[in-house]
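Hi support team,

I've been running sequence recovery on a batch of backbones for a student project. Most finish fine, but this one hangs at about 90% for roughly twenty minutes before it completes. I'm not sure whether the input is malformed or the queue is just slow. I've pasted the structure tokens below so you can try to reproduce it. Let me know if you need the job ID as well.

Thanks,
M.K.
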């Protein structure tokens, strides 16, 4: 049985910055399903994309793997000989639980779960790299550097899958999509207090980009193709192919 996310259900006198600590790790599956529109669809499709793009004797990276949902989805789909998944997260609470989830299922595709800062991970011989709601937590100047490193480590024809929350340049559209996201959270049982306090906690640590910014970065780095393949309100996922 999933633990229910009640982290922001009581008034908090001084709201600190959101962190992926033990409390969050305990309720993360419930939190993400009730907070991110289309999350299950994204996880399922990451597996399908990995099946299509993973190459024999290559490495698949899940950077910012949290509890391993994307890793497990990819491992279910990858059929290639000699393929390995490296899952990385900087939260010890997440990594500990991720290892339990990975070890609960047997597979021919080995998985290494590593506790580390994704900015310090060497990317090499990669056919698939996933950043599933991860890049938005890095400082803007670190995003370009990480994406360049991923590009260099990707094989020709390799794919980067990038899921993010988006901002929109049209103010009317931006506000409407934020409102619809809050409606989504209300429909999933979050109170006004929870929505407000979570927003305050996360606004200093998560600074989303626009779709145009992401596409410009991909283009500047040298990716041959990029597009949004999924969007629900102000959340979505993109691919970039080397």
């Amino acid at each position: 049985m999933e633990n229910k996310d009640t982290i922001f259900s009581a008034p908090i006198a001084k709201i600190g910055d959101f962190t992926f600590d033990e409390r969050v790790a305990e309720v993360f599956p419930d939190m993400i399903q009730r907070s991110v529109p289309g999350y299950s669809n994204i996880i399922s499709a990451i597996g399908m994309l990995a099946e299509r793009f993973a190459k024999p004797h290559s490495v698949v990276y899940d950077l910012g793997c949290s509890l391993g949902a994307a890793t497990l989805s990819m491992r279910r789909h990858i059929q290639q000989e000699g393929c390995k998944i490296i899952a990385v997260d900087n939260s010890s609470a997440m990594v500990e639980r991720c290892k339990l989830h990975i070890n609960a299922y047997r597979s021919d595709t080995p998985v290494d779960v590593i506790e580390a800062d994704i900015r310090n991970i060497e990317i090499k011989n990669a056919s698939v790299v996933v950043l599933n709601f991860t890049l938005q937590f890095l400082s803007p100047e670190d995003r370009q550097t990480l994406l360049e490193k991923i590009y260099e480590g990707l094989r020709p024809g390799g794919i980067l899958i990038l899921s993010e929350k988006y901002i929109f340049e049209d103010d009317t559209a931006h506000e409407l999509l934020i409102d619809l996201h809050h409606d989504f959270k209300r429909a999933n049982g979050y109170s006004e207090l929870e929505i407000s306090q979570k927003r305050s906690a996360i606004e200093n640590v998560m600074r989303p980009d626009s779709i145009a910014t992401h596409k410009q970065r991909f283009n500047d780095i040298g990716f041959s193709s990029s597009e949004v393949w999924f969007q629900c309100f102000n959340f979505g996922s993109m691919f970039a192919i080397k």
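--
Follow-up from support: It reproduced on our side and the slowdown came from queue contention, not your input. The CA atoms of residues 37 and 232 lie 6 Å apart. No action needed from you.
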